[in-house]
Amino acid sequence: MTYKRYIFIILIFITVLLFTKSLSAQTGTIRGFVYEKETGEPILFTNVYLYKTTYGAVTDVNGYFVISKAPTGSYTLMVTSIGFDTLKFPVNIKPDKIITKKFYLNKSNILLKGVSVSAEKQSFKTETKTSVVKITPKQIKQIPAIGGQPDFAQYLQVLPGIIFTGDQGGQLYIRGGSPIQNKVLLDGMIIYNPFHSIGLFSVFDTDILKNAEIYTGGFGAEYGGRISSIMDITTRDGNKKKITGKISAGTFGSKLLIEGPLKKQTDPDKGSSSFIFSAKNSYLEQSSKVFYKYINKEGLPFNYTDLYGKLSFNATNGSKANIFGFNFSDYVTGYNKLADFRWNSSGGGTNFLVIPPNSSALIQGNIAYSKYKISLEEESFLPRTSEINGFNMGLNFTYFYGKNELKYGIEMLGFKTVFNFFNSVNRKIDQTENTTELAGFIKTKIIKGKIILEPSFRAHYYASLSELSPEPRLSAKLNISDDLRIKFATGLYSQNLISSRSDRDVVNLFYGFLSGPENLQTEFDGKDVKSKLQKAQHIIFGIEYDLFKHSTINIEGYYKNFSQLTNMNRNKVFDDTPEYSDIPDYLKKDFIIESGNAQGIDVSVKYDYRRLYVWAVYSLGYIHKSDEISDYVPHYDRRHNVNLVGSYIMGKNLNWEFDVRWNMGSGFPFTLTQGFYELLDFSGGINTDYTTINGYIGTLYDDLNKGRLPYYHRLDVSLKRKFELGKNSTLEINISITNVYNRKNVFYVDRITNERIDQLPVMPSAGLSLTF
Q1: Which residue in 30, 210, 393, 413 is a FRET match for 252, CA 20 to 30 A apart?
Q2: Cβ proximity of 308 and 296 under 8 Å
Q3: CB–CB of 465/517 below 8 Å?
Q4: Can you list the domains of the chain with their CATH numbers?
Q5: How much is the pTM?
Q6: 229-235 and 182-186 as β-strands: parallel, antiparallel, unpaired?
Q7: How far is 194 from 211, CA to CA, in rounded Å?
Q8: Are the CB atoms for 224 and 439 separated by under 8 Å?
Q9: Alpha-carbon distance values, 121 to 111, 404, 526, 536, 546 (Å)
Q10: Which helix (H) or strand (E) covers residue 558, if one does?
Q11: pLDDT in tens, 722-760
């Protein structure tokens, strides 16, 4: 049976399963939204169920729920969420009728000992949850707030399978995937660089985040264009009842947040509109000259400014539309007198949610435009620049059939890349490329007894390469008991976008973007190259077990096969011209092909009850790559990684909080230096007199990445104290210490002078924030 026929049969099988409906017509549907009464914001992951039945649902990121195919009759609808008063509402479900309701919950003033039904535990039984972590602002604030500001980037570093390469210029690597293989979406808009040069901060303001879903592998067909991972981040809509805000300042930077109604929500049955705006910046370059002279007398040259704004328009039935825009910038001036680096990212767009009046369907769509430009200038090296700009748009439909779901949609994106780069022998590589990508997907969730199946299929067409990539995917879970669950995910993935950084970078900041490489090897590993796409296959197995009532252990083993990767050719020494036709491709092409794999196991344990939160993670990983010249491990191949996080709320009025985080990681690979020699560039051609000219210092390298740096470990702590200034006003004081015991973690060693530069030393910081 051919591969295409196999895919066709799978599609037919899925379609038959999806559209098979129950013969019984004596059922009805109740759907709606759950909001916070004080602000009008949706409440995520709230449990909504018919009392004394098995019919229920959990609200999504819009606060939306659907209980479909419920038997007709009179019920009591229960709405429960930790931190809010439980709501009870009588409903009368009639045959083939759809009831639409909006519920508003009051915040509870009582610290609950527990709730009878946990929305999180309920989701374990109804969602596959393979290689995905859902993050809320509450969780982000439970780790030490470095510089007085809790940040998304700091929390990402404690997740299983995620590796950060440093406090300065650090990059994010997820289960063997490089940063370009991680797709970042903000309200459906593509963000090309979510992290600042000082690796402690992201471009996102924690206080405007609603939810973030991090897929470290095995993600469904609704996501495409990347071969490793997905970050799907959504922001809040803004307070619909009154003007509120937050002002904060610390030793690293400051922030302003303001939100409120454009059209105040005075009646639950009427529409409303609201806005939210956030601005944050770093003045570390200036403040470090006062507080951190012992690190660098000239200051820490990290600067950034992040602006984000959003308008939300809400209809009476819960349908809504958002308009948003952003501008993020980052600049490093004269780092150790070696490099000037800067980037700027900006964009805007809209997304919408439509609730059809006589259907249990949900319609969502988005359209956005963003651009990103980066440049790096170093002493003794030629400058390099990269720019990418483009649009992305999508439309998808979700249908609910009892506990089962059907989702399908289309996606379109186009972008332009402009790239200029010089490799280690000063050969210029430049590219200007336009590309368009089209995709369609279908996905279903089928719950049958203790089994959950989520088969999906994506067809992704890369117009610039004239290539279609069929990508079947599957995730599944078996609920063995209330406390034990086994899960699985697999799939095929592809992408066109590639990135580059020079092997001569002293400060590893530059990350260029390229697309649709034409000047690529035609043969690899003795076989003809039939595709120009990067491709990967994922296989993931996992176990979830509830150790105690409030504690869960999650174990996942994964294997990612990167069957084809495209990289910059740093070995290029010849031009790709007819006179060098007999030279191998890997010595003359701008781009080369590699293959590789990543495998490992992640173990996480969480305990969350009342005042105490504990999160422990251990990751074991192996990464391997090969090209036509050598087999090697990439520079981010960290074998062992441990994160321990603890948060405890104290005081009679629960106004004190102590947070602690400890990270330990084994050493990263690096290339050893064997010696030095005089390097002559023969700039005068064949007439160059090598006996009289002065050369440069050349370096003799050992095999690529055969060495290992020392272990990295760091302890961070913070203490917070809240003061209630009024009914709607709170002052918070934050004191934190980064790298408490002043561990000297190596950043890099200058090969010529042998000078060692370390990561950040012990850094105390403080901050104030006023919420009004």
Answers
A1: 210
A2: no
A3: no
A4: 3-117 (2.60.40.1120), 132-671+706-771 (2.40.170.20)
A5: 0.89
A6: parallel
A7: 16
A8: yes
A9: 20, 18, 51, 32, 9
A10: strand 551-568
A11: 999 988 899 999 999 999 999 999 887 777 778 888 888
